[in-house]
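Can anyone check this?
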Amino acid sequence: MTRVMIIGYGPLPRPGTQYTSSVVLRTRHLFKPLVEAGLTVNLYTLPIPGSEGPEGEVAAMTPDHYEGFTYQRFTNHSAEFAIQTLTEQARQLEPDALVGVNTYPSYIGAMIPTTIPLWADLNGYWMAEMQGRCSVEKDDSMLADAWAIERVIARRLDKFSAVSRPQLHAVLGEMASIGRLNQHTFQYQFGHHLPNAHYRWEAPPPTEGEAAPGPVLRGPLVPPEAFVILWSGGFNVWCDIPNLVKAMDTLMERHPEVHFVSTGGRIEGVVTQVYQTFEELVEQSPYTERYHLLGWVESEKLPSIYREADLGINVDSINYETLFGARNRINAMAAEDLPVASTLGTEISEWLNDGQAIISAPMREPQVLAKKISRLIEHRDRLRQLAENARRIMEHDFSYEATTRHLLNWLKAPQLAPDNQAKLDGAVEPVTDLAAIAGNSLEEEAMLLARHRPKEIMRALAEHQTQPARGGGGRKFKFWRT
């Protein structure tokens, strides 16, 4: 029976949770099928950025529980503590494979000094996400650190999964740049397409004698006859907030029954400015009283909110994250039988559009989006058909089983990538850390950059060039070891 160490984000979603990030849903997405397949699983979670609280002031690892499963939860983001602790765990447990779920946990897994096969799940394209944050903050300084993390993963992984096919191709380009597409891997499949599965929030049943909960939106928040358009989830840098508000204002002008509801908000520890901009635009709208910004709500309220809404909405800006990324909100709304309107750009939006399962419009065309939605407000039977088509696609193409089959197949007999195996086979001495070996000159360059910043390298080269020749052979300068 395969023994697996999984490193992801947590805590895992449960009733009462208000802020559940896509990275936590992704951890559950990959973790659950492995447990259900009977593998021996040891799960370790890092906290969502910005969610540590007072508990995170001290680096520690503590047990937690989820649906009868006990896992280990780190209390803060100390990479040094996590790497040291997980190295000890790997030596003690001797797993057959490591699985990193999301980019930063995959980086932690890649930093463990070991030769255990590693699957890195890159849930979203890290470099495009960083580009978005740089754009918002008007500061490119984080790009070097982001690439340093991505490069470490690409050098060490044996398999990887990407949330979209465009992202899979982007990562393969990164791996070519650091020497992983080499003589040993010519016929080897490094990457696999692993789109987000749909996740259905479930409200706990009422206890004996407790009355069933009433409506969350209709009556308490909006008129019973309102046409409710729902945004669900965080407001990240790739959201086209100005055009979202323009489309909603246009619809509200044409249809007095239209109300907009949002659950979710700023993404603490990552980006907060986008939601602030949204709040400001809503305040300036002539229909501000028909916008209802609920912020992050308890997870048990979400099923009712989805059922009470008439249409889900997603509006993206033109950027590289949209090209490479995914949209959990679309999956979730489609799985809940809620019709969805979205700009086209992400793989999931185009997938559903091809299946005649979504109201679609080009990006930066709020009037076109509003016109298409308006037409279906007046023909709601068509909305029902779109919702049914989308739900069927979710059940067939985006189930946990369908999306994780490549991972489960690999875990039946996890192996090193051919070039990583060649490094072991060609080593003169026993190898305990694959990341310490370079197989070709491009890998040597990547190893060099991982250990030294460019300014340090240039300074060392300058010092080397000024050294006098000794013994006729000069000074041999080497930054890496093999």
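Reply from J.R.: I decoded it. The radius of gyration is 25 Å.
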